[in-house]
Design brief:
With 181 residues, the chain is of the alpha+beta class. The protein has one domain (3-153): 3-Layer(aba) Sandwich (NADH Oxidase). Helices cover 35% and strands 15% of the residues. The chain has helices spanning 3-10, 24-35, 54-61, 68-72, 91-95, 97-114, 127-134; strands spanning 46-51, 75-81, 118-122, 141-149. The longest helix is centred in the middle third of the chain and has 18 residues, at 97-114.
């Protein structure tokens, strides 16, 4: 089994982190992985804000409904979507940006896991508050925040997680199967 597949299949969201500081080189590689994610029409709408200050992590964690792990992570990376030139609030933010943000997020989380760093996304349910905390200009949107930190305990990250649905209930050839209805 190759390392990429192993990283993908073993990565699980982690909401409890140790107090061990992140290796700065690893954080650089994590952000570089986001920068290298593909982008629809090369628009490159994703920017990152790396939050390590405890007071700032506390403020940011108040912007989501299920975000206490943002307080305890070593770095929270906000994925920000910038509007296309002259298109503040245009369909760009609705159609192209979120997909690019997801690609950047997955690149970061997989790179982190390959470095032994756990992660968990956090939705900012109050996007306006998150934008204010981060000092974003008008038209810029927080797509998501990813919490990063070393896990508190070693072991199998899959233990205790919900099982994945069987592949025959996940992927079908050509058409939607009747048995899925």
């Amino acid at each position: 089994m190759n390392d990429v597949f192993r990283t993908i299949t073993s990565k699980r969201d982690t909401r409890v982190f140790s107090t061990r500081p992140l290796d700065p080189g690893a954080l650089d590689r994590i952000t570089q992985a986001a920068r290298m994610a593909g982008s629809a029409k090369a628009a490159q709408p994703v920017r990152l804000i790396i939050v390590t200050d405890q007071a700032q992590k506390d403020r940011l964690s108040q912007c989501g409904d299920f975000t206490p792990h943002v307080r305890t992570c070593q770095a929270a990376v906000a994925i920000v979507l910038v509007p296309e030139a002259g298109l503040v609030g245009a369909p760009f933010a609705i159609f192209r940006g979120p997909f690019d943000a997801g690609r950047a997020a997955q690149n970061m989380m997989l790179t982190a896991w390959s470095e032994g760093i756990a992660s968990c996304p956090a939705s900012m349910h109050n996007g306006e508050a998150a934008a204010n905390v981060l000092g974003l200009p008008p038209g810029h949107v927080v797509a998501n925040v990813i919490a990063f930190g070393y896990p508190t305990a070693s072991g199998d990250p899959v233990t205790g997680t919900r099982p994945r649905i069987p592949v025959e209930n996940f992927a079908a050839p050509e058409r939607w199967p009747e048995e899925w209805e």
